[in-house]
Amino acid sequence: MFRDTSIVYDLCTQLKEYRYINHYSDEILTKSQEERINDYVDDLSIDLFFRLASFKPILITKNDIPKRFTPFGLTDIDNEYELNLNSKYDRHTFISVLTHPNFLKNKFKSNKFIMNLYCGAKRFSATGTSFLIKPGIFTHPYIDSFKKEHQLISLDYNRSGMLYTLSDFMNNLGKEIKYNIYPNDYFISLISDYVRIKDQEIFPGITLEYALSLYVILVEKVKLKDDNISSIIAHGFYDSKFDITHPLQLFHNFELKLNRLFRKEDIEINDVFLRFVNPETSKAFKIEFDAPSKNFVKIQLFNNILVSDVWFYNTLPLPYLHNKIYK
């Protein structure tokens, strides 16, 4: 993913000026503060990817979800609607469908992997939150050994490439022997059940793997953890045919060009401040929820004009940038 020390330094300087971080040295950031800045830059990069890339259209119906997100609020879906993931509002709708507790379980009622999925939640900033899809796997037997194998190489610069590298690692018997990896029967059965259905369609022309790959980029930001979908879908890559339209292949190509594609003009310092604001104590920050659903919010910093954004299913909370793009 994109990293530029000059951008981090500039953002750090502005954060100090407004007292969102307090250090005597101009060069000191705590690990948590650096992670927040990097997460913000990651969200800018992923948002740009979704604005630029060409995805397969995703056709949803009112049986999938009764309403969709629009700039004007929630709108009824009459019969069917074609999602265009270049639109931030259609991305919110996509996440709301895929993370619905019964959506996947109604399609694969006898599949152990699907039936063991559960719903999680995460607050992505002071202005965005979302439900999550969590696999019924809490300890992934390969992750720690994979990170140890590649500890001298930064895999963070190409995260989709990291998943393909993980796939090769997990399918290498020599690595299992080297690191004494012994997956238990429960883990093997869940992964086998995922691989068995990954190429089945959950929307017309859209496979389960395609949809989960979009989710992995949009929600998990392609980060490896024991209990996320990113580490699961890598198991299905080994026997997959190369497909340049696959979301993770598109993202891989995007990451290779990101140093050239990244737009510094997309940086909105107020969006950065929102990553550091304390919603409970900050006097400079105000947030108003729409009633009664609380799906949308109005945000104000430093008595500036109010900006509107989506609250639920918002995994890329960039309200000031999006207010500029979509207003």
Structural account:
There is one protein chain. With 327 residues, the chain is α+β, with helices and mostly antiparallel strands. Among the domains are: 5-51 and 263-326, no CATH class; 137-247, no CATH class. 42% of the residues lie in helices and 16% in strands. It is built from 15 helices and eleven strands. It has helices spanning 5-17, 31-52, 88-98, 103-107, 112-115, 143-149, 159-170, 173-178, 185-197, 208-220, 230-233, 247-256, 258-261, 269-273, 319-326, and strands at 58-61, 67-70, 73-76, 80-83, 118-125, 128-134, 201-203, 206-207, 285-289, 296-301, 307-310.
Succession of helices and strands: HHEEEEHHHEEHHHHEEHHHHHEEEH
- Average pLDDT: 91
| Largest sheet composition | 3 strands, antiparallel
CA gyration radius, whole angstroms: 20 Å
Distance between the termini: 28 Å
- Describe the global form: globular
How many helices? The count is 15
Number of strands: 11
Unreliable spans: none
Look at the helices and sheets and give the structural class. alpha+beta
Strand order of the largest sheet: 9-10-11
Proportion of residues in helical segments = 40-55%
- What percentage of the residues does DSSP assign to strands (E)? 15-25%
Quick structural summary:
By secondary structure, this protein is an alpha+beta fold.
Question: What tags apply to this protein structure?
Answer:
15 helices, single chain, 327 residues, two-stranded antiparallel sheet, globular, 11 strands
